[in-house]
Amino acid sequence: MYLRVRGRPLLSGLEAWVCKWDRSREFPYPRRGIHNGSGNLSAFWRGSAALEAGAFRRREIWLQVTIAKDGKRRNRSWIFRYTTNGRTTEMGLGSLEVVGLKEAREQAREYCALRLGGVDPLQHRNAQRAAVAAANMKSITFEAAAHAYIAAHRNEWRSQKHAQEWSRSLIKHVFPTLGSSPVSTIDTALVVKALEKVWQSAPETAARLRGRIEAILDWSTVAGYRSGDNAARWSGHLEYLLATPRKRRIEHLPAMPWQHVPAFMEKLRAVNSVAARALEFAILTATRTGEVHGAVWGEVDPDNALWNIPAARTKSGRLLRVPLAPRALQILKGLRLAQSEHLFPVTKGALGKDALHRLLKALGHNDITVHGFRSSFRDWAGESTNFPREVCEAALAHATGDRVEQAYRRGDALEKRRKLMEAWANYCSQPVASGDVVLLRKSGVDA
Q1: What backbone phi and psi angles, to 5 degrees, belong to 215?
Q2: Distance, CA of 228 to CA of 166 (rounded, Å)
Q3: Where are the domains of the chain?
Q4: What is the value of pTM for the model shown?
Q5: Rounded Cα–Cα distance for residues 90 and 318 (Å)
Q6: Residues near 279 by beta carbon (within 8 Å), at least 6 away in sequence
């Protein structure tokens, strides 16, 4: 057993070293430098008095005591000391508060074994720590990978709402199970665990979630954060563990037969309100309800009779140029006096989302939807006109043909669509005979 006093005056403060040496004698005060002694090293930290700076050693293990900057606290830690080629090296083994004597001895034994094999213990430990740090740099949790994937693909999605739906669905259904797991550790069992509850209650939602998990794991593989097969792959993999999601039966929105639209429009024109003009404008332009609700004057080009709906407000994510028939321009001219940025203003900003539906209900058409008039327009164009199918679909902002055809088709058939929309407006304005009955049917036009 040895005692070394570092940077302390000779014998000054040594009375503070209190040890029970073999329970029978006290440690003899040293005279200078390092002196031999005998006793129980574990008694060192059971002393009742404060410990001065210094170190006890047993073989290669040192218990070092240093005084904190405040002069009150004593920091006690284990030191492994060894000499190689005349050069002495000290390695910290941990604080006495965490590492006991037994653990310190085990670490020292391992380092001694390394030295016998010609390996420097400090270099070996530093190499291990560097390897762990490098592995951590290549590690990423599923939640972090999901946010990175969404950020990378946000601009290619059709709307901000779609990106928000991604985040909300993952937060609600997936992150509780996979969020904190490194993507490199996610296996089939974890994916099934994340999906099994929602797979039974909401199969369509679960199918979308599975696809999103698969996309995030694919991104992680390409980014170098994981390797191997995708644990969320359906074909030849999860299809054997999970039942095929039930497809929801598509129910078309109620729509009015196109033969009865003129009678309805005559009734609508008799209503003097902003909501009535907005509904008439939506029918004449065959646009979506949300596009009409958010329309502002900055989108209207009256000189060229155009309504330019920006990509951020369209379902397709592309600019939509809507030709305006004379009646549609007349509606806007009557609203221009309102002095608002919105085409169809109310007291507090834009027209409410339910305003047009409430108007239909007030007119006695509880089962009709505003969107259904797009179907009425499409059936009229297909059954009573000779306009090409592509032009009719373009008027509804529907894409036609395969991806290759769409890539080569750069125009939007504006002038052909202008003629179509003028013919539709003329049809909607034609006089009707008295006694006509408005019927309802199911619409087959997509959203």
Answers
A1: -65, -40
A2: 25
A3: 2-137, 142-240, 254-442
A4: 0.51
A5: 67
A6: 268, 356, 359, 360, 370
Q: Identify the helix (H) or strand (E) that includes residue 276.
A: helix 274-285
Structure tokens that stand for 10 in this block: 């000779």
Whether the CB-CB separation of 321 and 314 falls below 8 Å is answered with no
Whether 298 and 434 have beta carbons less than 8 Å apart is answered as no
- State CA 108 to chain mean position distance: 47
Give the model's confidence band at 71: pLDDT under 50 very low, under 70 low, under 90 confident, else very high. confident
Residue with tokens 């949300």: 290
pLDDT in tens, 208-260: 999 999 999 999 999 888 888 999 999 999 998 988 876 545 456 678 889 98
Closest by CA position to 275, among listed 360, 367, 365 = 360
Regarding the domain delimited by 254-442, which CATH topology (the fold level of the hierarchy) does it fall under? Answer: hpI Integrase; Chain A (1.10.443)
Report whether CATH 1.10.150.130 matches the domain 142-240: yes
In 3D space, the residue among 166, 116, 110, 114 whose CA is nearest the CA of residue 143 turns out to be: 166
Cα distances (Å, whole numbers) of residue 367 to 253, 261, 304, 440: 9, 15, 37, 8
- Tell me how far CA of residue 219 lies from CA of 45, 225, 299, 325, in angstroms: 54, 9, 38, 48
How many residues are recorded in the chain? 447
Helix H or strand E segment including 425: helix 414-429
